[in-house]
Amino acid sequence: MSGSVLYDVPGPRAVVRNRIIGAVTILVVLVFLGWVLWRFYETGQLSPEKWELFSYTAIWMLFLEATGNTLAAFGVAAVGAVLLGFILALGRMSDHGWLRVPVAWLVEVLRAVPVLVFMMLLYYGLPVVGIKMTPYWAVVIALIAYNGSVLAEVFRAGVESLPRGQSEAAYAIGLRKSGVMRLVLLPQAVRAMLPVIISQLVVTLKDTALGFIITYHELLYLVKLLGNQALYHSPLIPSAIIGGSIYVALCLALSYLAYLVEKRTRRSPKVVTIADDGGEPPTATEAIAAGRGLGKYDASGL
Amino acid sequence: MGVITDNLDLWGEAIGGTLVLFFGGGLIALVLGFIVGAMRVSPIPIARAVGAVYVNWIRNTPLTLVMFFFAFCLPILLQQRLSAIALATVALGIYTATYVAETIRSGVNTVPVGQAEAARALGLTFGQVMGYVVLPQATRSVIPPMMSVFIALLKNTTVAAGFSVLNLGSVRSWMAEPPRSENQLVVLLWVMVIFVVLVLLLAWLQRTLERKWRIAR
Predict the structure, then answer these.
(1) Which helix (H) or strand (E) holds A214?
(2) What is the assigned CATH class of domain A48-290?
(3) What's CA A103's distance to the chain center, in Å?
(4) Mean predicted lDDT score pLDDT of chain A
(5) For the segment B42-90, what is each residue's pLDDT rounded down to a tens digit?
(6) What is the ipTM of this complex?
(7) Which residue, among A5, A9, A283, would best test binding to B if mutated, counting the most B CBs under 10 Å from its CB?
(8) What residue ranges do the domains of chain B occupy?
(9) Does domain B2-212 sit in CATH 3.40.50.300?
(10) Residues in B 172-211 with any Cβ partner in A closer than 8 A
(11) How far, CA to CA in Å, does A287 sit from each of A165, B145, B155?
Protein backbone atom coordinates (compact mmCIF):
# COMPACT_ATOMS: atom_id res chain seq x y z
CA MET A 1 0.00 0.00 0.00
CA SER A 2 2.90 2.32 -0.43
CA GLY A 3 2.59 5.38 -2.54
CA SER A 4 -0.85 6.79 -1.91
CA VAL A 5 -0.97 10.54 -1.80
CA LEU A 6 -3.78 10.57 0.65
CA TYR A 7 -2.41 8.94 3.76
CA ASP A 8 0.74 7.80 5.47
CA VAL A 9 1.46 4.33 6.75
CA PRO A 10 -1.17 4.00 9.50
CA GLY A 11 -0.11 4.08 13.14
CA PRO A 12 -1.79 2.04 15.90
CA ARG A 13 -4.74 4.44 16.31
CA ALA A 14 -5.35 4.66 12.58
CA VAL A 15 -5.21 0.87 12.32
CA VAL A 16 -7.96 0.53 14.93
CA ARG A 17 -10.03 3.23 13.27
CA ASN A 18 -9.63 1.62 9.85
CA ARG A 19 -10.71 -1.73 11.24
CA ILE A 20 -13.84 -0.16 12.73
CA ILE A 21 -14.74 1.54 9.45
CA GLY A 22 -14.07 -1.74 7.64
CA ALA A 23 -16.44 -3.57 9.97
CA VAL A 24 -19.11 -0.90 9.46
CA THR A 25 -18.70 -1.23 5.67
CA ILE A 26 -19.22 -4.99 5.88
CA LEU A 27 -22.27 -4.41 8.06
CA VAL A 28 -23.81 -1.92 5.63
CA VAL A 29 -23.25 -4.26 2.68
CA LEU A 30 -24.70 -7.21 4.59
CA VAL A 31 -27.75 -5.20 5.62
CA PHE A 32 -28.28 -4.16 2.00
CA LEU A 33 -27.92 -7.70 0.68
CA GLY A 34 -30.18 -8.97 3.44
CA TRP A 35 -32.81 -6.39 2.55
CA VAL A 36 -32.69 -7.41 -1.13
CA LEU A 37 -33.01 -11.07 -0.18
CA TRP A 38 -35.91 -10.25 2.15
CA ARG A 39 -37.72 -8.37 -0.61
CA PHE A 40 -37.11 -11.33 -2.94
CA TYR A 41 -38.57 -13.66 -0.38
CA GLU A 42 -41.47 -11.35 0.50
CA THR A 43 -42.54 -10.94 -3.14
CA GLY A 44 -42.21 -14.63 -3.83
CA GLN A 45 -39.32 -14.37 -6.27
CA LEU A 46 -37.64 -17.37 -4.68
CA SER A 47 -40.64 -19.64 -5.07
CA PRO A 48 -40.25 -22.60 -7.44
CA GLU A 49 -43.20 -21.53 -9.64
CA LYS A 50 -41.38 -18.34 -10.61
CA TRP A 51 -38.43 -20.34 -11.85
CA GLU A 52 -40.40 -23.19 -13.40
CA LEU A 53 -40.16 -21.68 -16.87
CA PHE A 54 -36.40 -21.99 -16.79
CA SER A 55 -36.44 -25.73 -16.32
CA TYR A 56 -37.29 -26.20 -20.00
CA THR A 57 -34.55 -26.79 -22.56
CA ALA A 58 -36.51 -24.83 -25.18
CA ILE A 59 -36.28 -21.69 -23.04
CA TRP A 60 -32.54 -22.06 -22.79
CA MET A 61 -32.36 -22.51 -26.53
CA LEU A 62 -34.19 -19.17 -26.78
CA PHE A 63 -31.57 -17.63 -24.51
CA LEU A 64 -28.85 -19.10 -26.70
CA GLU A 65 -30.51 -17.67 -29.80
CA ALA A 66 -30.93 -14.23 -28.20
CA THR A 67 -27.29 -14.24 -27.07
CA GLY A 68 -26.41 -15.18 -30.63
CA ASN A 69 -28.40 -12.21 -31.91
CA THR A 70 -26.62 -9.90 -29.48
CA LEU A 71 -23.24 -11.24 -30.52
CA ALA A 72 -24.15 -11.10 -34.22
CA ALA A 73 -24.90 -7.40 -33.93
CA PHE A 74 -21.78 -6.86 -31.84
CA GLY A 75 -19.45 -8.77 -34.15
CA VAL A 76 -20.41 -6.95 -37.32
CA ALA A 77 -20.54 -3.60 -35.50
CA ALA A 78 -17.09 -4.15 -33.96
CA VAL A 79 -15.40 -5.00 -37.26
CA GLY A 80 -17.23 -2.18 -39.03
CA ALA A 81 -16.39 0.33 -36.33
CA VAL A 82 -12.67 -0.49 -36.45
CA LEU A 83 -12.64 -0.18 -40.24
CA LEU A 84 -14.61 3.07 -40.21
CA GLY A 85 -12.34 4.32 -37.42
CA PHE A 86 -9.28 3.73 -39.61
CA ILE A 87 -10.83 5.47 -42.58
CA LEU A 88 -12.02 8.48 -40.60
CA ALA A 89 -8.70 8.73 -38.74
CA LEU A 90 -6.79 8.76 -42.04
CA GLY A 91 -9.19 11.40 -43.34
CA ARG A 92 -8.73 13.55 -40.24
CA MET A 93 -4.96 13.37 -40.48
CA SER A 94 -4.92 14.12 -44.20
CA ASP A 95 -2.69 16.91 -45.49
CA HIS A 96 -5.51 18.17 -47.68
CA GLY A 97 -7.83 20.67 -46.07
CA TRP A 98 -10.76 19.79 -48.31
CA LEU A 99 -10.72 16.28 -46.86
CA ARG A 100 -9.58 16.98 -43.31
CA VAL A 101 -12.13 19.63 -42.36
CA PRO A 102 -15.32 17.84 -43.49
CA VAL A 103 -14.17 14.58 -41.92
CA ALA A 104 -13.40 16.40 -38.67
CA TRP A 105 -16.94 17.79 -38.65
CA LEU A 106 -18.43 14.43 -39.50
CA VAL A 107 -16.58 12.83 -36.58
CA GLU A 108 -17.72 15.60 -34.23
CA VAL A 109 -21.36 15.26 -35.23
CA LEU A 110 -21.40 11.46 -35.16
CA ARG A 111 -19.96 11.49 -31.66
CA ALA A 112 -22.38 14.11 -30.40
CA VAL A 113 -25.53 12.29 -31.47
CA PRO A 114 -26.83 9.75 -28.92
CA VAL A 115 -26.62 6.23 -30.37
CA LEU A 116 -30.26 5.58 -29.57
CA VAL A 117 -31.43 8.65 -31.50
CA PHE A 118 -29.32 7.52 -34.44
CA MET A 119 -30.87 4.05 -34.28
CA MET A 120 -34.34 5.59 -34.20
CA LEU A 121 -33.47 7.78 -37.15
CA LEU A 122 -32.43 4.73 -39.13
CA TYR A 123 -35.37 2.59 -38.06
CA TYR A 124 -38.28 5.04 -37.82
CA GLY A 125 -37.06 8.04 -39.77
CA LEU A 126 -35.52 6.69 -42.95
CA PRO A 127 -38.57 4.69 -44.16
CA VAL A 128 -40.05 8.14 -44.93
CA VAL A 129 -37.54 8.60 -47.71
CA GLY A 130 -37.98 5.04 -48.86
CA ILE A 131 -35.10 3.35 -47.09
CA LYS A 132 -36.38 0.48 -44.98
CA MET A 133 -34.17 -1.66 -42.84
CA THR A 134 -34.54 -4.36 -40.23
CA PRO A 135 -33.85 -3.49 -36.57
CA TYR A 136 -30.65 -5.53 -36.89
CA TRP A 137 -29.17 -3.22 -39.50
CA ALA A 138 -30.37 -0.11 -37.68
CA VAL A 139 -28.52 -1.30 -34.57
CA VAL A 140 -25.40 -2.31 -36.48
CA ILE A 141 -25.14 0.84 -38.61
CA ALA A 142 -25.74 3.17 -35.66
CA LEU A 143 -23.11 1.35 -33.60
CA ILE A 144 -20.61 1.42 -36.48
CA ALA A 145 -21.15 5.16 -37.02
CA TYR A 146 -20.79 6.10 -33.35
CA ASN A 147 -17.99 3.78 -32.32
CA GLY A 148 -16.19 4.28 -35.61
CA SER A 149 -16.00 8.00 -35.00
CA VAL A 150 -14.82 7.48 -31.41
CA LEU A 151 -12.18 5.01 -32.58
CA ALA A 152 -11.08 7.48 -35.26
CA GLU A 153 -10.18 9.89 -32.46
CA VAL A 154 -8.44 7.09 -30.59
CA PHE A 155 -6.28 6.19 -33.61
CA ARG A 156 -5.50 9.83 -34.25
CA ALA A 157 -4.54 10.38 -30.60
CA GLY A 158 -2.34 7.29 -30.84
CA VAL A 159 -0.53 8.54 -33.93
CA GLU A 160 -0.14 12.06 -32.58
CA SER A 161 1.28 10.80 -29.31
CA LEU A 162 4.21 9.19 -31.13
CA PRO A 163 7.50 11.07 -31.06
CA ARG A 164 8.01 13.27 -34.15
CA GLY A 165 11.26 11.51 -34.84
CA GLN A 166 9.37 8.42 -35.93
CA SER A 167 7.75 10.04 -38.95
CA GLU A 168 10.79 12.21 -39.67
CA ALA A 169 13.04 9.16 -39.78
CA ALA A 170 10.55 7.31 -41.96
CA TYR A 171 10.43 10.18 -44.45
CA ALA A 172 14.21 10.42 -44.32
CA ILE A 173 14.66 6.84 -45.50
CA GLY A 174 12.49 7.68 -48.49
CA LEU A 175 9.09 6.27 -47.57
CA ARG A 176 6.01 7.88 -49.06
CA LYS A 177 3.16 9.27 -46.97
CA SER A 178 1.24 6.01 -47.18
CA GLY A 179 4.31 4.01 -46.24
CA VAL A 180 5.06 6.20 -43.24
CA MET A 181 1.52 5.73 -42.00
CA ARG A 182 1.17 2.06 -42.78
CA LEU A 183 4.64 0.77 -41.86
CA VAL A 184 5.71 3.09 -39.06
CA LEU A 185 3.01 5.14 -37.39
CA LEU A 186 -0.14 2.99 -37.36
CA PRO A 187 1.45 -0.23 -36.04
CA GLN A 188 2.85 1.67 -33.07
CA ALA A 189 -0.32 3.67 -32.52
CA VAL A 190 -2.53 0.59 -32.61
CA ARG A 191 -0.28 -1.26 -30.22
CA ALA A 192 -0.26 1.61 -27.75
CA MET A 193 -3.99 2.14 -28.07
CA LEU A 194 -5.06 -1.51 -28.03
CA PRO A 195 -6.46 -1.40 -24.47
CA VAL A 196 -8.50 1.70 -25.32
CA ILE A 197 -9.72 0.11 -28.54
CA ILE A 198 -10.88 -3.00 -26.70
CA SER A 199 -12.64 -0.97 -24.03
CA GLN A 200 -14.43 0.90 -26.79
CA LEU A 201 -15.54 -2.49 -28.08
CA VAL A 202 -16.96 -3.19 -24.63
CA VAL A 203 -19.01 -0.01 -25.08
CA THR A 204 -20.18 -1.37 -28.43
CA LEU A 205 -21.23 -4.63 -26.81
CA LYS A 206 -23.07 -2.75 -24.06
CA ASP A 207 -24.84 -0.54 -26.57
CA THR A 208 -26.26 -3.49 -28.48
CA ALA A 209 -28.74 -3.57 -25.57
CA LEU A 210 -30.21 -0.35 -26.99
CA GLY A 211 -31.58 -2.55 -29.76
CA PHE A 212 -34.18 -3.63 -27.21
CA ILE A 213 -35.81 -0.20 -27.52
CA ILE A 214 -36.16 -0.44 -31.29
CA THR A 215 -37.47 -4.03 -31.04
CA TYR A 216 -34.33 -5.90 -32.07
CA HIS A 217 -34.69 -9.45 -30.75
CA GLU A 218 -31.67 -9.49 -28.49
CA LEU A 219 -31.28 -10.69 -24.90
CA LEU A 220 -33.21 -7.94 -23.17
CA TYR A 221 -36.10 -8.36 -25.58
CA LEU A 222 -36.27 -12.03 -24.68
CA VAL A 223 -36.10 -11.18 -20.97
CA LYS A 224 -39.13 -8.90 -21.32
CA LEU A 225 -40.96 -11.47 -23.42
CA LEU A 226 -40.42 -14.30 -20.94
CA GLY A 227 -41.11 -12.00 -18.00
CA ASN A 228 -44.62 -11.35 -19.26
CA GLN A 229 -45.68 -15.00 -19.52
CA ALA A 230 -48.65 -14.85 -17.14
CA LEU A 231 -49.11 -18.60 -17.50
CA TYR A 232 -45.78 -19.05 -15.75
CA HIS A 233 -46.45 -16.42 -13.04
CA SER A 234 -44.74 -13.59 -14.97
CA PRO A 235 -41.16 -14.44 -13.95
CA LEU A 236 -39.77 -11.01 -14.90
CA ILE A 237 -37.18 -10.84 -12.13
CA PRO A 238 -35.81 -14.37 -12.62
CA SER A 239 -35.51 -13.85 -16.36
CA ALA A 240 -33.92 -10.43 -15.83
CA ILE A 241 -31.39 -12.06 -13.50
CA ILE A 242 -30.52 -14.71 -16.08
CA GLY A 243 -30.42 -12.37 -19.09
CA GLY A 244 -28.57 -9.71 -17.12
CA SER A 245 -25.96 -12.21 -15.96
CA ILE A 246 -25.28 -13.26 -19.54
CA TYR A 247 -24.80 -9.63 -20.56
CA VAL A 248 -22.54 -8.80 -17.63
CA ALA A 249 -20.53 -11.99 -18.16
CA LEU A 250 -19.92 -11.13 -21.83
CA CYS A 251 -18.87 -7.57 -21.03
CA LEU A 252 -16.70 -8.63 -18.10
CA ALA A 253 -14.90 -11.15 -20.31
CA LEU A 254 -14.14 -8.48 -22.89
CA SER A 255 -13.10 -5.96 -20.22
CA TYR A 256 -10.80 -8.57 -18.72
CA LEU A 257 -9.18 -8.99 -22.12
CA ALA A 258 -8.63 -5.22 -22.25
CA TYR A 259 -7.07 -5.39 -18.79
CA LEU A 260 -4.73 -8.22 -19.78
CA VAL A 261 -3.67 -6.39 -22.95
CA GLU A 262 -3.08 -3.22 -20.96
CA LYS A 263 -0.87 -5.10 -18.50
CA ARG A 264 1.13 -6.58 -21.38
CA THR A 265 1.34 -3.23 -23.12
CA ARG A 266 2.71 -1.60 -19.99
CA ARG A 267 5.51 -4.15 -19.72
CA SER A 268 6.34 -4.30 -23.40
CA PRO A 269 9.47 -2.37 -24.44
CA LYS A 270 8.06 -2.02 -27.95
CA VAL A 271 5.42 0.42 -26.83
CA VAL A 272 6.19 4.08 -26.47
CA THR A 273 4.89 5.21 -23.12
CA ILE A 274 2.61 8.15 -23.50
CA ALA A 275 2.68 11.16 -21.20
CA ASP A 276 5.15 9.67 -18.79
CA ASP A 277 5.45 12.25 -16.06
CA GLY A 278 6.61 10.09 -13.25
CA GLY A 279 3.28 9.42 -11.56
CA GLU A 280 1.00 6.45 -12.06
CA PRO A 281 1.13 4.68 -15.40
CA PRO A 282 -1.18 6.61 -17.72
CA THR A 283 -4.82 5.61 -17.74
CA ALA A 284 -6.76 5.24 -20.95
CA THR A 285 -8.23 8.69 -20.54
CA GLU A 286 -4.86 10.30 -20.07
CA ALA A 287 -3.47 8.50 -23.06
CA ILE A 288 -6.21 10.04 -25.14
CA ALA A 289 -5.83 13.35 -23.41
CA ALA A 290 -2.23 13.25 -24.52
CA GLY A 291 -3.55 13.47 -28.05
CA ARG A 292 -4.97 16.85 -27.12
CA GLY A 293 -8.20 17.95 -28.71
CA LEU A 294 -11.62 16.56 -28.00
CA GLY A 295 -10.65 12.95 -28.26
CA LYS A 296 -11.26 12.13 -24.65
CA TYR A 297 -14.81 12.98 -23.93
CA ASP A 298 -16.34 9.74 -24.89
CA ALA A 299 -13.45 7.37 -24.80
CA SER A 300 -13.80 6.90 -21.06
CA GLY A 301 -15.96 3.88 -21.68
CA LEU A 302 -19.42 5.39 -21.67
CA MET B 1 -40.22 23.86 -38.53
CA GLY B 2 -43.96 23.14 -38.26
CA VAL B 3 -43.19 20.04 -36.24
CA ILE B 4 -41.77 22.23 -33.51
CA THR B 5 -44.17 25.19 -33.60
CA ASP B 6 -47.30 22.98 -33.68
CA ASN B 7 -46.18 21.02 -30.64
CA LEU B 8 -44.41 23.67 -28.62
CA ASP B 9 -45.66 22.46 -25.24
CA LEU B 10 -44.65 18.88 -26.03
CA TRP B 11 -41.13 19.96 -26.97
CA GLY B 12 -40.99 22.07 -23.82
CA GLU B 13 -41.98 19.09 -21.67
CA ALA B 14 -39.52 16.85 -23.52
CA ILE B 15 -36.63 19.23 -22.95
CA GLY B 16 -37.78 19.55 -19.33
CA GLY B 17 -37.72 15.77 -19.01
CA THR B 18 -34.22 15.59 -20.44
CA LEU B 19 -33.03 18.33 -18.08
CA VAL B 20 -34.59 16.61 -15.03
CA LEU B 21 -32.87 13.36 -16.02
CA PHE B 22 -29.59 15.18 -16.66
CA PHE B 23 -29.45 17.27 -13.50
CA GLY B 24 -31.14 14.71 -11.23
CA GLY B 25 -28.98 11.89 -12.53
CA GLY B 26 -25.91 14.12 -12.39
CA LEU B 27 -26.54 15.05 -8.76
CA ILE B 28 -27.01 11.43 -7.69
CA ALA B 29 -23.95 10.44 -9.72
CA LEU B 30 -21.81 13.16 -8.12
CA VAL B 31 -22.81 12.32 -4.54
CA LEU B 32 -22.64 8.56 -4.95
CA GLY B 33 -19.57 8.76 -7.18
CA PHE B 34 -17.75 10.89 -4.64
CA ILE B 35 -18.50 8.38 -1.88
CA VAL B 36 -17.46 5.40 -4.01
CA GLY B 37 -14.39 7.27 -5.29
CA ALA B 38 -13.38 7.99 -1.70
CA MET B 39 -13.88 4.31 -0.85
CA ARG B 40 -11.68 3.33 -3.82
CA VAL B 41 -8.74 5.41 -2.55
CA SER B 42 -9.28 4.78 1.17
CA PRO B 43 -6.79 2.89 3.35
CA ILE B 44 -9.49 0.34 4.23
CA PRO B 45 -9.15 -2.83 2.14
CA ILE B 46 -12.82 -3.83 2.58
CA ALA B 47 -14.07 -0.43 1.44
CA ARG B 48 -11.74 -0.57 -1.56
CA ALA B 49 -13.02 -4.04 -2.45
CA VAL B 50 -16.69 -3.03 -2.14
CA GLY B 51 -16.04 0.03 -4.31
CA ALA B 52 -14.19 -2.04 -6.89
CA VAL B 53 -16.97 -4.62 -7.13
CA TYR B 54 -19.60 -1.92 -7.54
CA VAL B 55 -17.63 -0.03 -10.18
CA ASN B 56 -16.61 -3.08 -12.22
CA TRP B 57 -20.03 -4.63 -12.06
CA ILE B 58 -22.07 -1.59 -13.08
CA ARG B 59 -19.54 -0.45 -15.68
CA ASN B 60 -19.91 -3.79 -17.41
CA THR B 61 -23.69 -3.64 -17.35
CA PRO B 62 -25.45 -1.96 -20.27
CA LEU B 63 -27.32 1.16 -19.15
CA THR B 64 -30.42 -0.25 -20.82
CA LEU B 65 -30.22 -3.23 -18.49
CA VAL B 66 -29.76 -1.04 -15.40
CA MET B 67 -32.75 1.02 -16.42
CA PHE B 68 -34.71 -2.12 -17.26
CA PHE B 69 -34.12 -3.34 -13.76
CA PHE B 70 -35.17 -0.07 -12.18
CA ALA B 71 -38.19 0.47 -14.41
CA PHE B 72 -39.65 -3.04 -14.36
CA CYS B 73 -38.12 -5.08 -11.53
CA LEU B 74 -37.89 -2.58 -8.68
CA PRO B 75 -41.65 -1.80 -8.59
CA ILE B 76 -42.28 -5.54 -8.26
CA LEU B 77 -39.79 -5.88 -5.43
CA LEU B 78 -41.14 -2.84 -3.57
CA GLN B 79 -44.72 -3.75 -4.42
CA GLN B 80 -45.70 -0.20 -5.27
CA ARG B 81 -45.96 2.02 -8.30
CA LEU B 82 -43.15 4.53 -8.70
CA SER B 83 -42.91 7.40 -11.13
CA ALA B 84 -41.10 6.39 -14.31
CA ILE B 85 -38.95 9.50 -14.46
CA ALA B 86 -37.78 9.08 -10.86
CA LEU B 87 -36.75 5.49 -11.53
CA ALA B 88 -34.94 6.46 -14.74
CA THR B 89 -33.15 9.29 -12.93
CA VAL B 90 -31.93 6.98 -10.18
CA ALA B 91 -30.82 4.41 -12.76
CA LEU B 92 -28.85 7.07 -14.66
CA GLY B 93 -27.34 8.29 -11.40
CA ILE B 94 -26.25 4.84 -10.28
CA TYR B 95 -24.79 4.04 -13.70
CA THR B 96 -22.95 7.35 -14.07
CA ALA B 97 -21.68 7.26 -10.47
CA THR B 98 -19.22 4.52 -11.45
CA TYR B 99 -17.64 6.80 -14.05
CA VAL B 100 -17.56 9.71 -11.60
CA ALA B 101 -15.85 7.46 -9.04
CA GLU B 102 -13.22 6.32 -11.55
CA THR B 103 -12.59 9.90 -12.64
CA ILE B 104 -12.08 11.02 -9.04
CA ARG B 105 -9.81 8.08 -8.35
CA SER B 106 -7.57 8.69 -11.34
CA GLY B 107 -7.62 12.43 -10.56
CA VAL B 108 -6.28 11.80 -7.07
CA ASN B 109 -3.70 9.44 -8.52
CA THR B 110 -2.32 12.13 -10.82
CA VAL B 111 -1.05 14.11 -7.83
CA PRO B 112 2.58 13.10 -7.32
CA VAL B 113 3.17 11.34 -4.01
CA GLY B 114 5.99 13.76 -3.21
CA GLN B 115 3.49 16.61 -2.96
CA ALA B 116 1.65 15.04 -0.04
CA GLU B 117 4.84 13.76 1.53
CA ALA B 118 6.32 17.23 1.45
CA ALA B 119 3.12 18.65 2.92
CA ARG B 120 3.18 16.11 5.75
CA ALA B 121 6.85 16.78 6.33
CA LEU B 122 5.96 20.42 6.90
CA GLY B 123 3.63 19.24 9.66
CA LEU B 124 0.33 19.92 7.95
CA THR B 125 -2.61 17.95 9.29
CA PHE B 126 -4.66 15.57 7.13
CA GLY B 127 -7.27 18.26 6.54
CA GLN B 128 -4.64 20.79 5.51
CA VAL B 129 -2.85 18.33 3.24
CA MET B 130 -6.13 17.61 1.49
CA GLY B 131 -7.43 21.16 1.45
CA TYR B 132 -4.29 23.04 0.46
CA VAL B 133 -2.23 20.54 -1.51
CA VAL B 134 -3.94 17.43 -2.86
CA LEU B 135 -7.48 18.53 -3.70
CA PRO B 136 -6.62 21.76 -5.53
CA GLN B 137 -4.32 19.80 -7.85
CA ALA B 138 -6.64 16.81 -8.17
CA THR B 139 -9.65 19.02 -8.94
CA ARG B 140 -7.90 20.62 -11.86
CA SER B 141 -7.01 17.33 -13.47
CA VAL B 142 -10.47 15.92 -12.73
CA ILE B 143 -12.53 18.70 -14.34
CA PRO B 144 -11.98 17.86 -18.05
CA PRO B 145 -12.68 14.11 -17.78
CA MET B 146 -15.59 14.89 -15.45
CA MET B 147 -17.10 17.06 -18.17
CA SER B 148 -16.75 14.10 -20.54
CA VAL B 149 -18.70 11.99 -18.08
CA PHE B 150 -21.45 14.59 -18.03
CA ILE B 151 -21.54 14.85 -21.82
CA ALA B 152 -22.03 11.09 -21.92
CA LEU B 153 -24.71 11.40 -19.25
CA LEU B 154 -26.55 13.94 -21.38
CA LYS B 155 -26.52 11.56 -24.32
CA ASN B 156 -27.52 8.65 -22.11
CA THR B 157 -30.69 10.42 -20.95
CA THR B 158 -32.23 9.33 -24.26
CA VAL B 159 -32.17 5.70 -23.09
CA ALA B 160 -35.06 6.62 -20.77
CA ALA B 161 -37.13 6.92 -23.95
CA GLY B 162 -37.46 3.16 -23.94
CA PHE B 163 -39.02 3.21 -20.47
CA SER B 164 -42.01 5.53 -20.98
CA VAL B 165 -40.29 8.71 -19.84
CA LEU B 166 -40.98 11.79 -21.93
CA ASN B 167 -37.66 13.30 -23.02
CA LEU B 168 -35.98 14.38 -26.21
CA GLY B 169 -35.39 10.78 -27.20
CA SER B 170 -39.09 9.93 -27.09
CA VAL B 171 -40.70 13.08 -28.55
CA ARG B 172 -41.27 11.11 -31.73
CA SER B 173 -43.62 8.62 -30.10
CA TRP B 174 -45.42 11.24 -27.96
CA MET B 175 -46.57 13.42 -30.86
CA ALA B 176 -50.27 14.14 -30.25
CA GLU B 177 -51.74 13.14 -33.61
CA PRO B 178 -51.28 9.58 -34.85
CA PRO B 179 -47.60 9.76 -35.74
CA ARG B 180 -47.43 10.81 -39.37
CA SER B 181 -44.46 9.08 -40.80
CA GLU B 182 -43.02 12.04 -42.67
CA ASN B 183 -42.96 13.95 -39.39
CA GLN B 184 -40.87 11.28 -37.72
CA LEU B 185 -37.81 11.95 -39.82
CA VAL B 186 -38.02 15.70 -39.26
CA VAL B 187 -38.57 15.28 -35.51
CA LEU B 188 -35.59 12.96 -35.18
CA LEU B 189 -33.40 15.29 -37.22
CA TRP B 190 -34.34 18.17 -34.91
CA VAL B 191 -33.55 16.03 -31.87
CA MET B 192 -30.14 15.30 -33.39
CA VAL B 193 -29.53 18.99 -33.99
CA ILE B 194 -30.44 19.83 -30.39
CA PHE B 195 -28.08 17.18 -29.08
CA VAL B 196 -25.22 18.23 -31.33
CA VAL B 197 -25.65 21.82 -30.14
CA LEU B 198 -25.85 20.83 -26.45
CA VAL B 199 -22.87 18.50 -26.66
CA LEU B 200 -20.72 20.99 -28.56
CA LEU B 201 -21.67 23.58 -25.93
CA LEU B 202 -20.53 21.29 -23.12
CA ALA B 203 -17.38 20.39 -25.06
CA TRP B 204 -16.61 24.08 -25.50
CA LEU B 205 -17.12 24.62 -21.76
CA GLN B 206 -14.82 21.68 -21.12
CA ARG B 207 -12.05 23.15 -23.27
CA THR B 208 -12.44 26.58 -21.70
CA LEU B 209 -12.20 25.20 -18.16
CA GLU B 210 -9.29 23.01 -19.16
CA ARG B 211 -7.37 25.96 -20.55
CA LYS B 212 -8.22 28.13 -17.57
CA TRP B 213 -7.11 25.62 -14.96
CA ARG B 214 -4.22 24.01 -16.74
CA ILE B 215 -1.31 23.30 -14.41
CA ALA B 216 2.25 23.07 -15.51
CA ARG B 217 3.90 20.00 -14.06
Answers:
(1) none
(2) mainly alpha
(3) 23
(4) 85
(5) 888 899 999 999 999 999 999 999 999 999 999 888 888 889 899 999 9
(6) 0.87
(7) A5
(8) 2-212
(9) no
(10) 172, 181-182, 184-185, 188-189, 191-192, 195-196, 199-200, 203, 206-207
(11) 19, 12, 23
